[in-house]
Design goal:
Blueprint lengths: L9 H8 L4 E2 L1 E7 L2 E7 L2 E5 L4 E7 L5 H7 L1 E6 L5 H8 L11 E3 L5 E3 L4 E13 L2 E13 L9 E3 L2 E3 L1 H4 L3
Antiparallel strand pairs: 1-11, 2-3, 2-6, 4-5, 5-10, 6-9, 7-8, 9-10, 11-12
Amino acid sequence: MSLSSTAIEPLSFREALGHYASGITVITSHLDGEPIGFTCQSFYSVSMSPPLVSFSVKSSSYSYPKIRQAGRFGVNILSDEQVKISNQFARQGTDKWHGVEWQASPLGNPIIAGSLHWLDCEIHAEHAAGDHLIVIGEVKALNLQEAAATQPLLYFKGQYCNLAAHSAV
């Protein structure tokens, strides 16, 4: 098998990466009395000491410049019961917060009710990478919810999937 140096087609690249299951988060902040948020599946841990996490966001994002200005963000790790929340925050140009219950974190970031867990972060660094920005945050507070039966919301091959349906293997 030979590897070719031809350009990777964006659709093929997206399909290939779709075979990597990921959790779903909503990144939130609060600026000038307005809650801000967007759905993000490219979230991951970076360092244990200091506690750092990262997410990637399109350079053309409408929400991220406001989060950058606030200098802080919350990470709401969604449960499998929050498909509606994920879809709502993935849209642009709508009232993403309509009907969404939330409370302020210690840093003032919106924490969405029913989330599996949340992290409260200050922006630590930002790096340009292609058509995205890689944002690194230092975790300042977190909360592990006491919902043992709750499962994470997962995304695989372009659709939401249920971990419980596959746990009998």
